[in-house]
């Protein structure tokens, strides 16, 4: 290998990359799916959900934050990693209150889709049944913290794309929760608007438009029939949002 | 209820130049003044600093000693490390709650007093201990607790309480080069200035000095990378967060050897070319603040700090930043977030602190003891330093010895000392286990007491807790596991959720409801948390469980239920809230669970005769 060889090895395949790219960016460009929840190509990676954990030269690390080096050996699609990712997804499920069968996001939810992808059959861990506040104060949006996985995508979108900083995280440990930037702490009293990019970015049903439930029947929704690895995350892009 | 005096708030804001980087410091001052950062105060601060209200709220809710409600005139935190437990802190807590008529963790209705537990306060050698409005009272007895309660009932200001109550003892038991001599301020600095920065750095390199905070990173390498990194300014940070339960050697260094600490920081500044340094002092040591400020002032007067140090073209000064109660803030990138006025959440690496630290500028962050060692090396040279310790761990290490020993306190030994040697010298008898390096370290049993304290064998930031055979080691594991669950910052999912799962598991084991299969499950979950967590906290949170399952399996087996399946959902436990609301605890208010397979009743013991 010489200094100009910009390739690395992902699951045994040689993959080209551009200097400065993360493993996630290079893999996505090459059409390889690495499960993720808190990553969005428009924002600085946060690296908190840990779903994109891969094995890099024998050590675990997150694909969304780790820059590629020439010759790096990365394992992604292995039984070991799938089992570990399954456990993390199960943890996310028991930490909140998720009721997929009647959730408006069901079938379009990335948490649920990733759970299918990693072969989650049950919750494995005892449910925490936390008491969390629902905020229905906004005329157009519902904030249901029961379904929030604290990925901070709405926080980043509001701050960086909408220039508003409507959201933030508060508390610590398992009491960490999404808070809203208004004196009452209510979304209805903030300057949040349904046309914000942050209104469209939530991977789960935590931040969801009102009066739009179930437009498609079960079976016809995005991830009902196709694995997220094939469909992709279908994350909205702020540029497309700006055009319409 | 105290009315808010906005002139005083403005004064606090002005003292911190209304700088958002000072948000944590401002909120600490407000908490001390008003006993809480209530809605109007948070709103006022957010507007004055022009930061989002959600950010102010986020900071207040993150740190243990900040609160969104007003807690009271007197805020008492009883230290709850396992060593405090062993010395009877539960009785102290019970006395305080009873005499004061308060519920733990809830402000008293008249706004007078608040009492709660907190993690280790770094007074393990003289526990049980508590902090009242930040001031320590050690060696508590129930009698003393009752006296404290009566002072509070009559509203006597803390300033007039007996001064003897607040004495903290520094017990130096075995001295090495650090503890044996106090050097004249400035000597190390003169020696380094005579060598010049490059030759002095080479000397540190040759000494093989490794960081004393626990990880053992080569100090010279860190300093060199930082010095060579481009930036608008370089910074020196001293990590005095000392949060690992059972560690208190930095407390001793800051009390008795503050000059050496500041001198070491100044040496670091000289090498990397910094003009500004911070000492990050954990909230539990805020009572050392006046002393440290006085030492800094004296050093400025002696031209050892400030402009033109020792008449050279070298300027450097040090600010003390307080923590507000967060173990994770000891992690160096989280510490820097906290220095910048934010929630102490560890950053994503790369990039590392050495190149992107405070304000994203090159920064060295070292432990208190590491800086003291650099000052020693400046004075005596690398060859001298290399004479003690082992090949890969040169020099000496300060150990904080506590638990079941005759002589708790500070012991300085060369690296390579065996656990048994320390046990003999501190007067430990009938020892069952030693926790080396705190909850995140290693738990060893007598067959391993020949092992050595060193980075290549038993690595430790300084905590050394001893347990004799009368102790229930699973209660120790439970205390540590609860500690991690309470201190997880919540940033990453495996640690945020996983540490709660571990807490539930050990509680279930202690209650006698766990099965053999669950023991295997714990190991698997623990491995996931270790491998996938973002920082050292999550990566080590399962150590107490894993170490003891490996070394003391029979202890666990004796507590397992004979059933091979117990449902994760505890029907009887779920009724706890209803019982509390209906104020009932009779047998009929409990439920046994019937498992369909063979019709056995589960949780029957707790459900009493009712099933
Ligand atoms: C959760 C956590 C807590 C830590 N707490 C401390 C601490 O209280 N004091 C300390 O010196 N290092 C602590 N560290 C280690 C620091 O991150 C860092 O390695 C150290 O300050 C480097 O200094 P050194 O090289 O001089 O040891 C902690 C690390 C973690 C992961
Ligand atoms: S947010 Fe997703 S995972 Fe949660 S209930 Fe809705 S569909 Fe299920
Ligand atoms: S509301 Fe949605 S986008 Fe925001 S943190 Fe929660 S899960 Fe993420
Ligand atoms: S491992 Fe724990 S403490 Fe560290 S970043 Fe993750 S949640 Fe925070
Ligand atoms: S996608 Fe990488 S950590 Fe969440
Ligand atoms: S274990 Fe299920 S009925 Fe006995």
Task: Tell me what the structure shows.
- The complex is a heterodimer of chains A (244) and B (611).
- Chain A is of the alpha+beta class and 244 residues long.
- Chain A has helices spanning 23-29, 79-95, 110-117, 153-161, 222-225, 228-231, 238-243; strands at 7-10, 13-16, 53-56, 59-62, 73-75, 134-135, 141-144, 167-170, 177-180, 207-209.
- Chain A contains seven helices and ten strands.
- In chain A, the strands form three sheets. Chain A has a five-stranded mixed sheet, with helices on one face.
- In chain A, a hairpin with a 6-residue loop joins strand 8 (167-170) and strand 9 (177-180).
- The longest helix of chain A has 17 residues, at 79-95.
- Chain B is an alpha/beta fold.
- In chain B, 43% of the residues lie in helices and 13% in strands.
- In chain B, a hairpin with a 2-residue loop joins strand 3 and strand 4 (135-137).
- The longest helix of chain B is centred in the C-terminal third of the chain and has 18 residues, at 493-510.
- Chain B is globular.
- Bound molecules: flavin mononucleotide, iron/sulfur cluster (3 copies) and FE2/S2 (inorganic) cluster (2 copies).
- One iron/sulfur cluster is lined by residues 98-100, 103, 105-106, 109, 111-112, 147, 204-205 of chain A.
Report a brief summary of the structure.
The complex is a heterodimer of chains A (244) and B (611). By secondary structure, chain A is an alpha+beta fold. Helices cover 23% and strands 15% of the residues of chain A.
Give me some keywords for this one.
heterodimer, A: 244 residues, alpha+beta, globular, B: 611 residues, alpha/beta, 4-stranded mixed β-sheet, 27 helices, disordered C terminus, binds flavin mononucleotide, binds iron/sulfur cluster, binds FE2/S2 (inorganic) cluster
